[in-house]
């Protein structure tokens, strides 16, 4: 599979009609093809809005966001993972995946589900899956939509620690084998320390990039001690800048 696209974000201004101060003003962010970037920052800083702008869902801003050389709104839709799984309960798991990619055949659906540890579950309805399995199905749906560009908005929020570890392991494999470009919005420095090769901290209103940290050690070879060092470094920066 081709490596994920490069992204170029240049937001001159983004203001919601209800807000007097712009959410973003002169925000720039360039993201290398195939990289995994964690976007961290306090609640309300604009992380989810940034993902929607990159996804081309929200086009109400001035500036330009380019995905693989095309305006975000004209680029292929990304794979989006939300805070909750958002599977349609009246469709089977396979049906949910085919909503994202109507051309997905039975075998391809099986392969995709197997890649997230859900082999043989395509005919199940979502209520038959545990919470953790529903998260994995949501990840498979995002891969069905676009395996090259993944936008994850707090994908581990409200999961218990064992499920977070399970999702981290799953994503480690998917990020390394597929080579997608991934943006992971999170409150947790731990997510960045384990998964990302770069962490961007947003703060303020208008939001600015207050820290842009390369996490150079390849995620696969990070020891628990190195992960802890990255996490503490990011938490300290967030405390200083947030
Ligand atoms: N559709 C909207 N209309 C008006 N204001 C909005 C809209 N969406 C977001 N906002 C406002 O924009 C700001 C940023 O919201 P956003 O959800 O992007 O922040 P966030 O960093 O993702 O927060 P959290 O971490 O709590 O999810 C907030 O003040 C929010 O109230």
Automatic annotation (TrEMBL):
PROSITE patterns: ABC_TRANSPORTER_1 (PS00211), ABC_TRANSPORTER_2 (PS50893). GO terms for molecular function: ATP binding. Transmembrane segments: none annotated. Residues 7-229 form the ABC transporter domain. Keywords: ATP-binding, Nucleotide-binding, Transport. It comes from the Bacteria. Belongs to the ABC transporter superfamily. This is ABC transporter ATP-binding protein. It comes from Devosia honganensis.
